[in-house]
Specification:
By secondary structure, this protein is an alpha+beta fold. The protein has one domain: Fructose-1,6-Bisphosphatase, Chain A, domain 1, CATH 3.30.540. It contains three helices and six strands, in the order H-E-E-H-E-E-H-E-E. The strands form two sheets. Strands 3-4-5-6 form a four-stranded mixed beta sheet. Strands 1-2 form a two-stranded antiparallel sheet. A hairpin with a 2-residue loop joins strand 5 and strand 6. The chain starts with 12 loop residues before the first helix and ends in a 5-residue tail after the last strand.
């Protein structure tokens, strides 16, 4: 159920820190999945917009979605590969399981996992993992 903007209770600093720590843990786990595919011939398709979507994108996104659902079941998710048609609520998670798919597929270490909690159109907690660069 989406909350109206006026009904959102802002998160306290400690709550944001706890959520950011959870997001960092999830992003690092997704990064491990990506590293398992990096440097290998990773199956992929081209999306309607011409950008690639790989098996690694989907596998990392599945892990992220499962963890977010387990830890934050009341907060909807907008994710690049599978949950992009969900209209966001005033508070939602925004996920890019593999930012830099083209670089990833080309063997470059410059790719990242991005997860953010958005509240009232602003990020309030986020994590970024760049497993290819350490």
């Amino acid at each position: 159920m989406a909350m109206a903007a006026s009904s959102i209770v802002s998160l306290s600093g400690p709550e944001r820190e706890r959520i950011a720590a959870d997001l960092a843990e999830i992003a690092c786990a997704a990064g491990e999945i990506l590293l398992g595919h990096h440097g290998h011939d990773c199956p992929h398709v081209l999306k309607v917009d011409g950008s690639p979507s790989s098996h690694a994108d989907l596998e990392a996104e599945q892990l992220i979605l499962a963890n977010l659902l387990e830890r934050f079941p009341a907060i909807p998710v907008v994710a690049e590969e599978t949950c992009h048609d969900v209209p966001p609520a005033d508070r939602f998670f925004l996920v890019d399981p593999l930012d830099g798919t083209r670089d990833f597929l080309a063997g470059s270490p410059e790719f990242a996992v991005c997860i953010a909690l958005i509240e009232g159109n602003r990020p309030v907690a986020a994590a970024l993992a760049a497993p290819g660069v350490g």
